[in-house]
Amino acid sequence: MNDYFTAAIGQLIERARVLRTKIPRDLPRDYDTLAQTCQERLKGYLERLRSLLEDPMFQLSAYQPERLRMFKRIVGDLDIIESVGITALDRATDADHKLNSLLERIAREIRYPLVTPVVTTLSQQYFCIVTDLNLLCVPLVEGQFLLHLPDLYHELAHPLLTEVDDPVVEPFQEAHFDALKLVLDYLSTEMAKQDRRRGPEQPSFTLSRWEVSWVKYWMVEFFCDLFGVFALGPAYAWSHLHLSAKRGGDPFEVQLVSVSSHPADDARMRAMLFGLEAAGFTGEAVEIGSKWKQLLEHNDVTPEPEYFQCYPDELLRQLAADALRGVRDIGCRLATPTTPDPVHSLLNRAWSEFWTSPDTYSEWEKRAVASI
Predict the structure, then answer these.
(1) Cα-flanking dihedrals φ and ψ of residue 365, to 5°?
(2) Where are the alpha helices (DSSP H) in 111-169?
(3) Closest CA to 290 of 234, 342, 340
(4) Are 45 and 78 a contacting pair, CB within 8 Å?
């Protein structure tokens, strides 16, 4: 094993060194934070690899299993930094530069309290964010269209919930915690009702699965959706309708035996509509709700009784109120019907054009994209 590790670790050290050369030195300043993060990570991996190679302890037979585990861990870490972070830097194009400029404008408009993420057009999973790299991934040509760009606001909210020891964003995290407590209290009450009925064990098991989903995944998604609503307004809810029509499954899906990563599309829309009402977009909420109802009718699906137990209206309404308090308390600009900010106005106008002039929308969109 010593011979194996001498060669394998030596080669991995050289791989990490080569990766450092793949970080361009001439990118716009928008990329500085990602480049610095990748450089620091690679230096850390090199230190760990040299320790595995040179520390006398790891020459002993008794420590070979631990040496192998550490080696595998570093290989996995290097794979991520190479395939995600450094690839985003090495393959950055003019389209990436434009989206980074746009995201910086959005961050300034809404007074985003953290460092603006870097954007890359290398996503194969729609919009997503790698929070530990502060890297926001979007599909290849997304910057040439407007209707899904509201999802940038959703992704901006994820770091607000993962940032540690930053008093500026703690009010948003505290609101998230308060909302979680509300959900847990509700589920506890439902479990107590089930225990009193002394019925089958399945409903109690289902409630416990919902509890895990709410705590680990769903509340985060609801709060990021609501951040999008409060920072952008109706365009965010319209984009959810659009995404559900294009890629969604059963909008009332509710898991009974497993944990799921995202709440049901209809529950997400209901929370957004409550958020729009709370933000003063009452008319827009009615209009979007009407279009959403039509979409549901064409889906030809109906909710199971458990669906409304999992996502009751009163719970979603309170989540919207908690999220609104959290966004306000971290100093972000809240969208209103009279907000004049350019990117905000353009993304909302895009949906107005979509509905009022569907035949000419594509041509209008080309001109609008060129203007920014």
Answers:
(1) -65, -40
(2) 151-162
(3) 234
(4) yes
